């Protein structure tokens, strides 16, 4: 791509501004109505919202910016970049406003070919918390003037460089945030090593942001190990939301305990008329996707001795689901007395393919306390003593499963009603054990559980769900069937 193309983008933008004004035909509030949130909080992963780009053409022409920002927010992302250029990126200031108004707690970067102070005023009033200033597009004095104005308005500036000439131009500003773009804006070629190399010539105290070309967790780790405080992820974030967990984990952004619990709390508020549903013992993709599409809130994958044992690859290849994914483990004690997660479960958790762990073995409260990943304990209940033991766990919820001799879980056995009633007295009830389409309505009516967990009760055979039973279950719960 020749030098003329970048200038062409800018030229088109200037003409649009002449025609439509700096607001680009969008109704911008006279006063900013959303809070200013500081940009680039660490660990910093900035995910982008863009429908198209000159180098890639259409990426996702029908992308809904608010839905996309919701996916980012759920993955623990704190900063979002919104493309507002229309002619080449199919963006709009409306996208930025919708995202910031729906998620005021996010820090929103306006990604645009900013040219003058009016652009900054509009960005601020529309709700941007930060703007991109591209060094190669601006004369040194203009860049300095815009940098000062950005901070005078209260926003942050991400000053982008791509060459040693750009670095020389911005050095006197000593920007707080310096973005090094691995993509050459004139040829649109990316070179992942260029930011690492250029970072060596940056001799002021700044937060370095690695921009463009990030595809997988490995790339994020390379950038972090090379001293970058953050990464800006564009096309990959839009095309592969299923990788967000992996990318965020590599940036050190997740999975945070609170993300799992926050998500569950949101699901509970989404359908207050029925309990949360965990469909457990899933071994195949078809069963997972059906349960997800029917409205399951949690999908359970058993990584323990069981006829329903899951395999790590199928969990890894499952892709994005609305339901959260839980690895069910019977953990073992290591030589230091600490509990060990099975290696494959640890990897799935670190990669963002699992959202939480269900401890289903003989774990003690002290062994689980303070773990760096989201978990809850399942307690096998056969007596009042078991109920008392359950109270000692610190996880926000404890799952009550039936105690069946010689079987860890998936027994099809129910907890006696008097114990369930006792358990329900002490707080929100998570209940498992022998729940099926024949008894679910009565269980929900009698005990008002917050979560029900089913495995063998919706199976055709051990490890294979029965689609009809699954469908019937959700019809019963939604009150569409007697
Ligand atoms: O389901 C299993 O085979 C299993 C094996 C080892 C540890 C835990 C297991 N399942 C845990 C669950 O969360 C089940 O959903 C729960 O025990 C209820 O099962 P079911 O009585 O079949 O509904």
From TrEMBL:
Job description of the protein: Bifunctional enzyme that catalyzes two sequential steps of tryptophan biosynthetic pathway. The first reaction is catalyzed by the isomerase, coded by the TrpF domain; the second reaction is catalyzed by the synthase, coded by the TrpC domain.
Listed Pfam families: IGPS, PRAI
Residues covered by the Indole-3-glycerol phosphate synthase domain: 41-242
UniProt cross-references to PANTHER family, sorted A to Z: INDOLE-3-GLYCEROL-PHOSPHATE SYNTHASE, TRYPTOPHAN BIOSYNTHESIS PROTEIN
Protein name according to UniProt: N-(5'-phosphoribosyl)anthranilate isomerase
Gene Ontology biological process terms from the UniProt entry: L-tryptophan biosynthetic process
The family this protein is said to belong to: In the C-terminal section; belongs to the TrpF family. Belongs to the TrpF family.
Alphabetized SUPFAM superfamilies for the sequence: Ribulose-phoshate binding barrel
Record-level Gene Ontology MF annotations: indole-3-glycerol-phosphate synthase activity; phosphoribosylanthranilate isomerase activity
Catalytic activity: 1-(2-carboxyphenylamino)-1-deoxy-D-ribulose 5-phosphate + H(+) = (1S,2R)-1-C-(indol-3-yl)glycerol 3-phosphate + CO2 + H2O; N-(5-phospho-beta-D-ribosyl)anthranilate = 1-(2-carboxyphenylamino)-1-deoxy-D-ribulose 5-phosphate
Keywords, in A-Z order: Amino-acid biosynthesis, Aromatic amino acid biosynthesis, Decarboxylase, Isomerase, Lyase, Multifunctional enzyme, Tryptophan biosynthesis
Class of the enzyme per the UniProt entry, highest EC level: isomerase
Keyword field contains Heme: no
InterPro entries: Aldolase_TIM (IPR013785), Indole-3-glycerol_P_synth (IPR045186), Indole-3-glycerol_P_synth_dom (IPR013798), Indole-3-GlycerolPSynthase_CS (IPR001468), PRAI_dom (IPR001240), RibuloseP-bd_barrel (IPR011060)
Residue ranges constituting the N-(5'phosphoribosyl) anthranilate isomerase (PRAI) domain according to the UniProt record: 277-475
Gene: trpF
EC number(s) from the headed UniProt entry: 5.3.1.24
Origin: domain of life: Bacteria
Involved pathway(s): Amino-acid biosynthesis; L-tryptophan biosynthesis; L-tryptophan from chorismate: step 4/5; Amino-acid biosynthesis; L-tryptophan biosynthesis; L-tryptophan from chorismate: step 3/5
């Amino acid at each position: 791509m020749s030098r003329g193309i970048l200038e062409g983008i800018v030229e088109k933008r200037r003409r649009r501004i002449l025609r439509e004004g700096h607001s680009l035909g969008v109704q911008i509030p006279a006063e900013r109505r959303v809070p200013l949130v500081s940009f680039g909080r660490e660990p910093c992963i900035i995910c982008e919202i863009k429908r198209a780009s000159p180098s890639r053409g259409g990426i996702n022409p029908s992308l809904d910016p608010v839905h996309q920002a919701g996916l980012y927010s759920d993955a623990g992302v704190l900063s979002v970049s919104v493309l507002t250029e229309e002619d080449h990126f199919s963006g709009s200031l409306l996208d930025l406003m919708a995202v910031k108004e729906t998620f005021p707690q996010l820090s929103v970067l306006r990604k645009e070919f900013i040219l003058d102070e009016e652009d900054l005023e509009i960005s601020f009033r529309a709700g941007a918390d930060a703007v991109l200033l591209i060094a190669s597009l601006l004369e040194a004095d203009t860049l300095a003037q815009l940098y000062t104005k950005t901070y005078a308005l209260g926003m942050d500036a991400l000053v982008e460089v791509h060459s040693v000439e750009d670095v020389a131009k911005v050095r006197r500003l000593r920007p707080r945030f310096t973005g090094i773009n691995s993509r050459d804006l004139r040829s649109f070629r990316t070179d992942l090593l260029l930011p690492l190399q250029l970072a060596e010539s940056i001799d002021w105290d700044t937060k370095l942001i690695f921009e463009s070309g990030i595809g997988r967790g490995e790339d994020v780790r390379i950038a972090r190990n090379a001293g970058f405080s953050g990464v800006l992820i564009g096309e990959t974030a839009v095309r592969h939301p299923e990788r967000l967990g992996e990318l965020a984990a590599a940036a050190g952004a997740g999975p945070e305990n609170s993300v799992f619990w926050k998500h569950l709390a949101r699901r509970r508020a989404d359908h207050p008329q029925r309990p949360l549903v965990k469909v457990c013992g899933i071994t195949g993709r078809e069963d997972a996707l059906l349960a997800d599409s029917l409205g399951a809130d949690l999908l359970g994958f058993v990584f323990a001795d069981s006829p329903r044992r899951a395999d790590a690859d199928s969990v890894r290849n499952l892709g994005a689901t609305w339901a959260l994914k839980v690895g069910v483990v019977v953990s073992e004690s290591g030589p230091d007395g600490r509990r060990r997660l099975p290696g494959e479960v640890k990897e799935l958790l670190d990669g963002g393919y699992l959202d939480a762990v269900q401890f289903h073995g003989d774990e003690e409260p002290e062994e689980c306390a303070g773990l760096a990943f989201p978990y809850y304990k399942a307690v096998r209940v056969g007596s009042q003593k078991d109920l008392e033991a359950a109270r000692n766990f610190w996880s926000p919820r404890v799952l009550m499963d039936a105690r069946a001799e010689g079987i860890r879980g998936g027994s099809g056995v129910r907890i006696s009603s008097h114990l369930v009633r006792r358990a329900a007295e002490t707080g929100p009830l998570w209940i498992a054990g022998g729940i099926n389409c024949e008894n679910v309505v009565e269980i929900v009516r009698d005990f008002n559980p917050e979560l029900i967990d089913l495995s063998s009760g919706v199976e055709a055979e051990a490890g294979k769900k029965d689609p009809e039973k699954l469908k019937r279950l959700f019809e019963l719960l939604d009150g569409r069937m007697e």
